[in-house]
Design brief:
The protein is of the alpha/beta class and about 350 residues long. The chain is built from 14 helices and 13 strands. Strand 9 and strand 10 (about 180) form a beta hairpin. The longest helix has 22 residues, at about 330-350. The relative contact order is 0.16.
């Protein structure tokens, strides 16, 4: 059985070997990786990994349509042989790590736990900054263990998911969070979606939803560990890179606050550390890969120093230092915020002449 992970990256070479080693340990057999506009050697590292047979690398040079860089990568993926031959597909980001609790922690174990599933939603668990200032060259999953509570009521983005889905032709297009482009209503009716609590999901999940119902447990069989912030120094470099979809939009304190939850601790992903380290050591036996990794680490340190010469980034760094960790809110307050979100969406829809999207449940 072939499990394909699709990844889009820019200026993230320092994290690639850990990410790849981890997901090999989880059970992914194939990797289709897109890069664009890299200054830190990400594209050269991917070329080397491609040459050694560890993944397939394509440059996503544009021009980019309305959907932006990631959506353009998905369009390119739709035409690729790895997508055509994959049994199961999942699109991931380099700061997302699949963490399976079922069985021995592999993808076949997850499928065995949900034998009737054609699509499985892996809900984010947000891992905060943990008041870490300096960027260091050590595994992300070892460095950041403080996280959001298992049950979170707000923001709804904290319950977003990525989808592992059977590639049987029901969906014609890959997507950032979920498959798209339904082939036929008959195929869709037979295609069954489950979450990682073992609950079968409703029709809306088959075509629309990007987030699980929050205010409930979602992680019993598996979760998606999401490390969107990292050390404060890393966040400044990430802010310079821009948003994943629209790279011209600088990240700010708003993005930080909605993700910097540190109330709980979760070290369950440590079950992969031995296998991850062994695979990573094997990769770094290649002297060129090892050198490219060292150069990428040095680039991140140097880029941070350069950005500190610019006022917008100095100001952002100062605000991060002064902003306390985010605190979860209770269910009653969350209902109030959900109501305001719905009103805002309806107002936006009226101004644009479109129908308002459904709010979070």
């Amino acid at each position: 059985m072939r499990f394909l992970a699709i990844l889009s990256v820019r200026n993230e070479a320092a994290f690639l070997l850990e990410w790849l080693a981890h997901h090999r340990a989880v059970g992914f057999t194939d990797f289709l990786v897109f890069s664009n506009d890299c200054q830190d050697g990400t594209d050269r590292m991917l070329d080397r990994l491609d040459r050694l047979g560890h993944l397939t690398h394509l440059r996503n040079e544009g021009p980019y349509g309305k959907g932006g860089i990631q959506f353009n990568a998905m369009k390119l993926a739709d035409k690729h042989r790895l997508v055509r031959r994959a049994d199961w597909i999942m699109a991931l980001d380099v700061d997302e790590f699949v963490n399976i609790h079922a069985g021995r922690g592999t993808l076949p174990d997850l499928l065995q736990a949900l034998p009737e599933a054609d699509a499985i939603t892996l809900t984010w668990r947000l891992f905060g900054n943990g008041e870490t200032l300096r960027y260091e060259d050590r595994p992300v999953t070892d460095s950041f263990t403080r996280c959001a509570p298992n049950v979170i009521h707000w923001p709804w983005r904290a319950a977003m998911f990525k989808t592992l889905y059977r590639n049987d032709g029901t969906y014609r297009k890959t997507g950032v969070h979920r498959p798209r482009g339904v082939q036929s209503d008959a195929d869709l009716a037979r295609f069954r979606w489950f979450d990682c609590e073992g609950r079968e999901l409703g029709e809306q999940f088959k075509t629309q939803r990007l987030y699980s119902d929050y205010g409930q447990p979602n992680h019993r069989l598996a979760q998606l560990n999401h490390y969107p912030l990292g050390a404060m120094e890393s966040y400044i470099v990430k802010a310079d890179r821009g948003r994943a979809v629209h790279s011209d939009q600088m990240l700010g304190v708003d993005y930080w606050v909605e993700r910097n939850f540190n109330t709980d601790e979760d070290t369950s992903i440590a079950r992969y550390a031995g296998a991850r380290d062994a695979i990573r050591a094997m990769l770094q036996e290649d002297q060129k890969l090892a050198r490219l990794h060292e150069e990428a680490v040095a680039w991140r340190h140097q880029r941070f120093r350069e950005l500190m010469l610019e006022d917008p980034f100095r100001a952002l760094f100062s605000r991060l230092l002064m902003t306390p960790p985010s605190r979860p809110i209770n269910a009653v307050t969350a209902q109030t915020l959900t109501g305001f979100a719905l009103l805002g969406r309806k107002a936006d829809a009226l101004r644009s002449g479109e129908s308002a999207p459904e709010p979070p449940e």
